[in-house]
Amino acid sequence: MSDDALREAAETMRAVRERCVWTQRIDHRDLVPYLVEESAEVIDAVEAGTRADLREELGDLLWQVLFHAEIAAGDPDDPFDIDDVARGLTEKMVRRHPHVFADAVATTPEEVLVHWNAAKAAEKRERTSVLDGVSDHMPSLALAQKVMSKAVQVGVCAPTHHLADPETEAELGDALLTLVHLARARGWDAERALRERVRDLRAEVRSAEAGTS
After folding, report:
1. What is the C-alpha to C-alpha distance for residues 45 and 160, in angstroms, rounded to an integer?
2. Which of 6, 63, 67, 76 is least buried, going by the fewest C-beta atoms within 10 A?
């Protein structure tokens, strides 16, 4: 057994890729459902599992990263491997934490975010919208929250409603369940309703950025 557990895991993945006939047939797109599933199981372990559950599920998620990297290593046009992934991650995290690795100062979480966002903006100079990089594949509630956080940056306000204002996160959960129940009772699709409103909000953001609103 190697003293470098991560390296051993990567070598195990390489051996599986080379010798397992099922694994040899898998590509990046084939892996997407497994990545979604394993990510969900990590969340379950964090919210309701044991420490052993979390350790195991993090391992399963790591396997997905190793799997994608091993597939990428065999790409004939633009190959990269797990070392390239790790190296890129390290370089990015060093850039985004100048208060840790350089002479910048951050004494509050808000100041940390200023450094993070400045470094990210420098890395993503090709982006022209605050919505660039926001994935449509996020769950609808997470997507709505992300888009609204971007919308305020360009002066676009989220729609208001007469619904009661919950005072705690638990009350918010009850309010969301109440709305889902209402949607079910009236034959509405709650997921579609939220996604359509988020789509409208995205359009408002892009309109504001273009100076046409």
Report:
1. 35
2. 76
| DSSP secondary structure, 44-108, as one string | HHHHH--HHHHHHHHHHHHHHHHHHHHHHHT-SSS---HHHHHHHHHHHHHHH-HHHHSS----S
Count CB neighbours of 38 within 10 A. 19
Contacts of 30 (CB under 8 A, 6+ apart): none
* Spatial separation of the C-alpha atoms in residues 156 and 158, rounded to whole Å: 7
Q: What is the pLDDT along the chain (213 residues), one digit of tens a residue?
A: 567 999 999 999 999 999 999 999 999 999 998 998 999 999 999 999 999 999 999 999 999 999 999 999 999 999 999 999 999 999 999 999 999 999 999 999 999 988 988 888 788 777 778 778 777 777 777 777 778 777 877 887 766 666 767 888 888 888 888 888 888 889 888 888 888 888 888 888 888 888 854
pTM, full prediction: 0.71
**Distance (Å, whole) CA 73 – CA 35:** 19
CA distances from 108 to 121, 169, 194 (A): 20, 24, 34
Give the DSSP H or E segment for 180. Answer: helix 169-185
